[in-house]
Amino acid sequence: MTASTTNPGLHLSGVTLRHGDGDQIVTALDDVSLDVAPGELLAVVGPSGAGKSSLLAVAGGLVHPDEGTVKIGDHELTGASQRDLARLRRTLIGFVFQSGNLVPALAAVDQLRLPLTLGPVEDPRDPRELLEEVGMSHRADRRPGQLSGGERQRVGIARALMTRPRVLLVDEPTAALDRARSQEVVALLARESHQHGVATVMVTHDHDVLHHCDRVLQMTDGRLEEHVG
Amino acid sequence: MFLAWRELTFARGRFALMGSVVALIGVLMVLLSGLSVGLVNDGVSGLKNLPVTAFAFEEDVDHSAAFARSVVDVSAVDEWAKVDGVDDAAAFGNALVNTRTDKGVDLDLALFGADPDAWFVPQAVTGTDVTGPGEVVLAGDVKDAGVAVGDVVVIDQLGTELTVVGFLEGQHTFGHVDVGYVDLPTWQEVHSGVRPGEDVPDRVYEQITAVALRGDADLAAGDAAVGTTSMTLSESFGASPGYTAETATLQLIQVFLYAISALVVGAFFLVVTIQRRQELAVLRAMGASSRYLLRDSLAQSAILLVTSTAIGVGIGLLLGSALSATEMPFALEAAPVAGASVLLVLLGMIGAAVAVVRITRVDPLIALGGNR
């Protein structure tokens, strides 16, 4: 799919997010600016509590920042209504959660159909074809309880790609995986991002998978910096 | 429905458990409803089917015991007949008596005294109607006790003899005893405690229990003119023995049953919802609207409630028809059963909806960085 926007990809500019009130204000994101190009896999590393999850929440329209703007292509997320945000999340954004966060009742192929039931989607992927692409077609009828951690994560990635999103936001995809599975999953993410021109932001603790990524940034106390080492 | 249906089949054990609770409540409801209708019939079926719109009792009579205590002068019948809107007025007498037939069958009767030709008196379907003094037409159910046309019923204490000349169709009871119709003078003698052969003072023939009325008269105005206290037919049910206490007890039980079922169903869906918190947060993050989550969850509870209520009511009806054949005062009517089922589903839906509203407030942020 060719995005006919003048400025494709994900753009954060001057984003600041504070939690709490009164004396207890915590600055989760401090003047963060970030551009992720289509097809780019960006990794964000940093200690717990550095604001990595807040970054994904703001980029995905789950939380409005206190300052700054978030844009996906020409679509501005900041200031959009809850209803519009839900629609943008459904059509432009894909989320990949820790350990897949699949719906326990659904077989793998139904996990992929689920995003299409949430509302109208233009030109969705074919669930069987996409399962094949992530190497899971032989497990199409298995429920999450019958899948291994790596398999769940593959299904989770495929689910996020069903609506052909412009942006993929990935939260600790390897948290529950052993080393070999972690490599496979992140390699899959890199391949899918490149192949489909998706701007991908992956938050991770796992320094062993960074070589799959096009760029790595470090987050410390809400500030985004170049990664050293 | 995509998710609702798959979750029902996935967690079928859990939902089956909940479904059986709802079904059992349904069974209980049908049985209670049958019992309550049965008791009402047992108490007032002798009145319920009469074409009477109201009874005029003695002025200021005790409302809960009017049928037993009221004494009205027979002249009130003519006075009521002149009231605007009264189509018909007739004398009505009631007395509870213990009797024994000449065959040795003990029989408690509510003796209704009325002119045999009076407009409200039901026709006998077996034998003949009452034609004169000393004759009685009994409720059809009395036949089951071994009483037949031609038997003589003897009233205890008084020794008054009444010949059974006919039977009414089906159930006619008042205050849980069977009804027998006698003519007015016979009733007046029994009511005043006159033994056969004794001299009867004239005043005895001037007393009746109430004036039975038909029409759409202004009862308050009529009462003021005639000097009576009248009640509509359904109000007068409360004046029959035990009626108010019985119906109030059953209503209380039913109200509690509904409250409990709403709470149980509500609590169940609340627990299910809380268990699904993470999953719902994921759905929200994926772009599901509140409407989607509401629709999906309500569809799920509707399927569960309608199915299990239908099963429960079905079982209840089967059990109920078995009970109807016994001595128990049990009668099934379509309207209360249907009403109760709709109410059960509705209350369940309300309970579920309260739980579901919490769903729509789930913070999609939980999906991020949450630990499973």
Structure commentary:
In chain A, the strands form two sheets. A six-stranded mixed β-sheet of chain A has the order 6-7-8-3-9-10. Chain A has a four-stranded antiparallel β-sheet with strand order 2-1-4-5, with helices on one face. Chain A has one domain (10-226): P-loop containing nucleotide triphosphate hydrolases (Rossmann fold), CATH 3.40.50. The longest helix of chain A has 18 residues, at 179-196. In chain A, α4 (127-133) crosses α5. Chain A is an alpha/beta fold and 229 residues long. The model of chain A has no long low-confidence stretch (mean pLDDT 91). In chain A, β4 and β5 (75-76) form a beta hairpin. Helix content of chain A is 29%, strand content 26%. In chain B, a hairpin with a 2-residue loop joins β9 and β10 (177-182). In chain B, α10 packs antiparallel against α11 (334-360). A six-stranded mixed beta barrel of chain B has the order 3-4-10-6-8-7. Chain B has a two-stranded antiparallel ribbon with strand order 2-11. In chain B, 49% of the residues lie in helices and 19% in strands. Chain B is elongated. Chain B folds into two domains: 2-43 and 244-367, no CATH class; 71-208, no CATH class. Chain B has helices at residues 2-10, 12-48, 66-69, 75-81, 184-192, 219-226, 233-237, 243-275, 277-285, 290-324, 334-360; strands at residues 54-58, 72-73, 86-101, 106-113, 126-127, 135-138, 152-155, 161-167, 173-174, 177-182, 207-208, 210-215, 228-232. With 372 residues, chain B is α+β, with helices and mostly antiparallel strands. Chain B is built from eleven helices and 13 strands. Classes of the chains: A alpha/beta (229), B alpha+beta (372). The interface between A and B is medium-sized, with 33 and 26 residues.
